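User: Please write out a complete single-protein record containing the residue sequence and its fold in token form, without commentary.

AI:
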Amino acid sequence: MKKLLLVLTIIAGTTFSASAQSPVMKGNILIDAGIGWPTGNVLWSDDGNGTWDNYSRTGGPFAFGGRLEYMVADGFGIGLDGNYVTTGYSYDQTYQTIDADGNFADTTENRSLTTKRMRVMLRMNKHIVQNDLVDAYVGAGVGYKYVNRKVEGIDDEQDGALIPVAFRLAFGARFFFTENLGAHVELGAWGGAPLQMGLSLKF
């Protein structure tokens, strides 16, 4: 019986040691990839009061992005933060016109707005909780913002960002399932979607 208990203790200890994880620390490389929500599409709705046909939103409900971080110290990391999103809407509007003979006729035109945004920022994170399961941080980023905005229909036009600068403040956490794989969630202001989530890798 004593030998059996000894063998079980050794097996349990070996299993625990093999599954034990190390916290995020100096020298680690962290990669996050995921989606962001909501996008600017929450602003668009079919309010044409029955005069709009084939109304649809452009780009879907999510943004896409990722982060790369290098831990220069046990509690501080620097890296890159990028995201991309397409938003907008499209609809057909029908109205009456008068032809050369003075007759009324229905005219249908397509109207649309498509906005594409891409941000690439230098990112710094201060890690406030670091253990074998959780890595929580506060972060700030600043960088470049590219905007392509295209309007079709009456007064067709295309323009870009008024100020091509992106900025973000954020609070987030990574939750590791294994030594190298986990999930992340981040709440932030500016520079991307308010809520971001996805997978995390640690090397």
Q: What stands out?
A: The helical segments are 2-19. Strands lie at 29-37, 52-57, 63-73, 76-98, 104-130, 134-152, 157-159, 165-176, 181-189, 195-202.
